[in-house]
Amino acid sequence: MNGFNPRVQLDWRRPPQEFFFAPGVDAGLWTTAPLPQMWERRPKGRIAAASVSDYDKFRTATRDYVTSTFRDRIFRSGLLMRTVPVVLENVTTEGHFLAIDGKHILNGAAGTRLRNKYSWANEGHFDADAETAAHFAELRAADPVPPVWEGSIDGLDFVIDTRNAFNFYHFATETLGQLCLVDRDDFTGRVLIHSDRAEVKTFIRDWIDQIFPRLRGRVEFLSGNHSYDRCLSVLNARHLWFQTGASAIDGLEEEAPETPHWLGRVPDRKSMLVLDMNSCDDTLLLLRETALSRIEGGDWSHLPRRFWVGRKSQRHRPMKGEAALTRALAKRGFEIVYFEDYSPLEQVALLAQAEIMMSYHGAGFANMLFASPETHCIEIGTHQTCRFRWRDFLPHTIASGCRYTSLFADFNVDDPAEGPPIRSRPLQAVRLGPDGQRKVLAYVDAILGQVRIDDPDWLAEVARMLARTGDTDALARLLDGHPNQTMADPDMMVQRANLHLAAGDPVAARLLLERAWEMTGNRPFLLERLVLLCERLGVEAPWAKLHAARYPQRAGLLEQKLQRQRRQA
């Protein structure tokens, strides 16, 4: 049963209609104003990833997973999911789960954990996923919309949850931004943050006090069971999407890829993960804006712009190869910093003005929420973090627009060629071997303007990552520095064509795409790009007929792309 042993004991055996609260159907929840548009399009995250393992086993496994992620799990645009203030009545808290009349509210990351735990707890008893899907289908058919509160909210406390108050990632990503909803002069109540553990780290309180000085002295952390007759809280769109119809949230389908990993409004738990990695809550964006406003006008010139983030934490998982890498980075102008040595506002400023931030996988990457769109954030991980933690930081890239690259190395274990069981816990430490270090430094050098890469496979990978992160200046330098390799590699030719398109030269782009097609002859996506470009240019070309003959099963998909292009024109 997945070793299910929850810290919070709920009545997990109840059927979903008795376990989960249904906004707009069950009594006890009101929005403070009519629902706004509950999601909007944002530029999708500028993310890249590759293997820097020394071993074929992990190079292949990581490449396959990264390829399938970009192909099957990434939406056409990023999504901003709204969070609105609500009034709740008859509220109880059990750990960090909030309930109304005993029915648990699905909100954000806590809602995802609740869905997962509910499924795990009922393995061998009943099909919790199927029964939840059937119940939510009935809710969607009714197309419920939460009622609007007509009374006063003066003096009400703001009651929210946090997974814990000692892990920076979870608190900053899931909870801290919710305080933006009450960071105003007319809010006079307390902020009551519920967790299933009593421990509260000092740095958590420091972040609250420095980002939200208006709330200083009114934020309390509580654990255990509590109850409220009436309070303020939040309602987030991520789970509301699965529980309601178009009247509350209209469709996202046009943004999603055609993939078995995404089932639309069906509350499949894989679909929840896909939605989570392609979206960010608006509270993250509000937190970013609030934090950046706090550092305006300050003198942050003493802070480095290129840095490697080290660790002092007791939970530290040492990275083998870190010392050798940081020595090489020091020659490139990097300093070693420890976030623990900086105040919250200094950490915000560090990222806001950073050129390149690097480290191995850890909670500190939540700070890239404050990075500028020009900042490169480079994370060294393992195949394990690739599979199970890579998606954790994707919402931060949507909110900040920064360039986030994950380079997956090896495991710091006795037999790195074999590695540990992929699902072993806790996460295994990183080992960066000599070949991995060479590749990491080549990528850094490409960003900084040093363009000579002798390994043709890694050259193509670096070009691909620069293209994915949108660093067109570095990509242009790289391709200019390797003209022969560029014209011998169809992917690099496509990247050069994209640069021509961005520069307003579609004719040169068409010639390169045609040459790339002639070199491959088996890529339907490339052929479809030619069809789209030729229609855009208004020129006669054989590509549409060739596509119809070669790929008749993709005719409908091509027509969708053409229609989308015509609408955008």
TrEMBL record:
GO terms for molecular function: glycosyltransferase activity. Residues 168-377 form the Glycosyltransferase 61 catalytic domain. InterPro entries: Glyco_transf_61_cat. This is Capsular polysaccharide biosynthesis protein.
